[in-house]
């Protein structure tokens, strides 16, 4: 709209100038040279005045608009978007131009306000997290941004330039700022004469002609200690329960037998020693002791598996081995065992002996879950995911696992079975971790369980 009004006003002024110059040219060309000079001047002067006036008016009109735009661009150059242009006075096209300038200023101010809000929001988030973050100029070492967590982890009160750390602790400077950590690396560094374990990663980026480096630093010592402590608490809780279950009857029975022997020694006539009872008691102590010894051996087996003997095998061949091993025992229990391979011929690189052990263990668990179930069925399925992972699934329609205990099934010695050791799933998980894979369990109580081995 402003441009149309400006164009119309410009055309009118240009036409006035054109007609005044045309009139001046015509008047000069048609003058009778016999006329006196004063008369010539009288005829020409009006056209000269009109031409000069038209030219000055056109020049002022154009220059005033350019002056307005020059002022606006000068404000933009110095990022002064707070200026307000009068929208109520002056020519219509100037008022429209001012409205446009003010709209641009309002828009830029709103954008800057949003950016500032987002910046403060992001800054507050980065300040609250426990991960240390620092960005600095690679050439000058000047800090672009650093949060409190980074300074706290390195025990540095303030940080303006990374050269400060170079002078204070060259080894720390070399490890964090010079060495390249494009992936998440674990490093051990010494802070205040104490070694701590950190997770570190960095990335380089450019802003205009400057190169910057972003470093992420996270102290994982506390996390590892906490996780280790929790694991030990669970392990000791289960071990204590198992050991007490074995020791309490042994102690009670031994005390009873000792009391009978002492009474018999003091007065064998009135308190004869029943050798049969003594033999039964000693046999019970022996069995309980053997059970406790077996428990200790089972615990020791957790640390036996440390390396793999990998080979590539067809899943169908692996399933054939499992079928040969498990079919006879399952037929007697009237449990249907089904093998499905969705991506035949599918190959996996595994330690065959160990994975067979895992599958047998999981199938036996499924058999236990299918007790007293109508039409019990166990499915051993193989499939390939979109991401290229090989997955073996053991699916049953048994009684399932209650939600309150499913998170504890991989804890060593945790079991809900009267005769179970609680070590099977722990070994399965360790074997899968050695294969750099994972074991996942999904279960719905009274509907069944699905265990996935992801390679």
Explain what you see.
- Helix 9 packs parallel to helix 10 and helix 10 (352-369) packs antiparallel against helix 12 (424-434).
- The two termini are 67 Å apart.
- The chain is 55% helix and 18% strand.
- The strands form three sheets. It has a five-stranded antiparallel sheet. It has a five-stranded mixed sheet with strand order 7-9-10-12-11, covered by helices on one side.
- The chain has helices at 2-29, 37-77, 92-128, 148-153, 163-168, 170-178, 221-266, 275-301, 315-331, 352-369, 403-406, 424-434, and strands spanning 132-137, 143-146, 185-191, 194-207, 210-219, 311-314, 336-341, 347-350, 377-384, 390-396, 438-444, 448-454.
- It is elongated and about 170 Å long.
- Strand 3 and strand 4 (194-207) form a beta hairpin.
- With 455 residues, it is an alpha+beta fold.
- The model has no long low-confidence stretch (mean pLDDT 77).
- It has four domains: 2-107; 129-219, Beta-Lactamase (2-Layer Sandwich), CATH 3.30.450.20; 224-301; 311-454, Heat Shock Protein 90.
Helix/strand-derived category reads alpha+beta
What CATH calls the topology of the largest domain is Heat Shock Protein 90
Poorly predicted ranges (pLDDT <50, ≥5 residues)? Answer: none
The structural domain count equals 4
Approximately what portion of the residues adopt beta-strand conformation? 15-25%
Q: H/E series, N to C?
A: HHHEEHHHEEEHHEHEEHEEHHEE
Gap between N and C termini: 67 Å
Number of helices: 12
Average pLDDT: 77
Strands in their spatial order, largest beta sheet: 2-1-5-4-3
Major pleated sheet: 5 strands, antiparallel
Using the coordinates above, name the CATH class of the largest domain. Alpha Beta
- CATH fourth-tier homologous superfamily of the largest domain: Histidine kinase-like ATPase, C-terminal domain
The helix fraction, in percent, is 40-55%
Total beta strand runs: 12
CATH architecture of the largest domain: 2-Layer Sandwich
What Rg, in angstroms, do the CA atoms define? 45 Å
Assign an overall shape: elongated
